């Protein structure tokens, strides 16, 4: 690592200290002017709830179809909520009926877990099998546009990774872990939908780990610990995307017809050691031979934030290049990786103070 803390850059990515505004974007896809009927799965999730709030205020959105096992808190006059469990065998027929009856033209698939779970069989039914049933229903209903949520962690953390991973790089996360395998299978289903649904637009957004004052996932829980486990002798570069920027990227994908796969990331990277210091936490380096058994024990006891396979991300680089989203979608993140971390940290400190006051009362 150079003394200024900036990593070497690829030919496609700017230097860590550079500003996105300094890039010269290519011609952008124009926003659609037709009134849309937008359906969202995972409508009551963090992304779904916030995206529905934006769509409610958009005059170009005629109707919102919320699909989840509970109604989103932001549902307004435009939103029609449907109670559908994607893990149930009857989900495909029910989804086809809803999408056709509502004349949905745009489907945003957000029904994915933000954190690993011990309920692996259920997660597989939701993310892999549920996605398959959803896309079959979407073809029957002749949905014209599909937007899928994916994640940059699916590239995998490997010592052979380049400084910045582009959308052309393969997804090499460990398929022994269902958190990765199911999402990789879902991307495969999206590609098959693209091949079979003639003329449909398929957009896949791979977000970096989402950070911010209100989002809750395994990364925010990891950084909320007073003692943050690290791997002794390793200090990988990491990146985040602010929750506001992640939501804005999905809104852009709804507004613009931009087929393809896009990395959605904040500008810049930080060493993990710097992330922990900025978060006001204390690093707890663990020797590599002890890390796997200790993490496995913690995961089994449900005190660890993630299973042992995630230890690779504490050792090796997994940083994505966001240039394509800038050039084609016109995605301009408002927050850098550092700023997303600071915004999260500020909110976390307020929560810590509140918890301390409640404990001492």
Textual characterization of the structure:
There is one protein chain. This protein has 361 residues and is of the alpha/beta class. It has a single domain (34-360), classed as NAD(P)-binding Rossmann-like Domain (Rossmann fold), CATH 3.40.50. 36% of the residues lie in helices and 17% in strands. The chain has ten helices and 13 strands. The strands form four sheets. A seven-stranded parallel β-sheet has the order 3-2-1-4-5-6-11, sandwiched between helices. A two-stranded parallel sheet has the order 7-10. Strands 8-13 form a two-stranded parallel sheet. Helix 3 (120-140) links the parallel strand 4 (106-109) and strand 5. Helix 1 packs across helix 6. The longest helix is centred in the last third of the chain and has 24 residues, at 337-360. The protein is globular, with a radius of gyration of 20 Å. The termini are far apart.
């Amino acid at each position: 690592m150079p003394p200024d803390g900036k990593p070497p850059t690829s030919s496609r990515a700017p230097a860590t200290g550079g500003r996105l505004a300094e890039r010269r974007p290519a011609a952008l896809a124009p926003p659609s002017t037709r009134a849309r009927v937008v359906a969202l799965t995972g409508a009551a999730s963090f992304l779904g709830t916030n995206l529905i709030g934006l769509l409610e205020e958009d005059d170009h959105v005629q109707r919102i179809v919320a699909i989840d096992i509970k109604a989103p808190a932001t549902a307004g006059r435009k939103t029609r909520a449907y109670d559908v469990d994607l893990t149930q065998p009857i989900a495909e027929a029910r989804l086809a009926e809803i999408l056709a009856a509502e004349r949905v033209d745009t489907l945003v698939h957000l029904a994915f877990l933000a954190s690993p779970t011990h309920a692996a069989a259920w997660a597989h039914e939701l993310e892999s099998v549920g996605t398959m049933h959803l896309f079959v229903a979407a073809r029957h209903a002749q949905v014209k546009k599909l937007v899928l949520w994916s994640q940059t962690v699916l590239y995998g953390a490997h010592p052979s990774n380049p400084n910045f991973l582009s959308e052309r790089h393969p997804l090499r996360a460990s398929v022994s872990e269902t958190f990765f395998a199911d999402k990789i299978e879902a991307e495969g289903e999206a590609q098959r939908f693209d091949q079979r649904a003639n003329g449909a637009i398929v957009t896949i957004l791979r977000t970096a780990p989402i950070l911010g004052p209100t989002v809750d996932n395994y990364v925010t829980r990891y950084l909320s610990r007073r003692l943050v486990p690290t791997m002794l002798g390793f200090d990988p570069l990491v990146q985040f995307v602010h929750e506001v920027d992640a939501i804005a990227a999905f809104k852009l994908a709804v507004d613009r017809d931009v087929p393809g796969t896009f990395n959605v990331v904040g500008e810049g990277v930080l060493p993990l050691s710097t992330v922990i210091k900025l978060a006001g936490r204390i690093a707890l380096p663990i020797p590599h031979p002890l890390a796997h058994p200790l993490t496995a024990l913690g995961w089994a006891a449900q005190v660890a934030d993630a299973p042992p396979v995630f230890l690779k991300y504490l050792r090796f680089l997994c940083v994505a290049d966001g240039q394509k989203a800038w050039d084609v979608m016109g995605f301009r993140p408002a927050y850098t990786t550092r700023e997303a971390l600071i915004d999260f940290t500020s909110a976390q400190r307020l929560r810590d103070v509140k918890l301390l006051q409640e404990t001492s009362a």
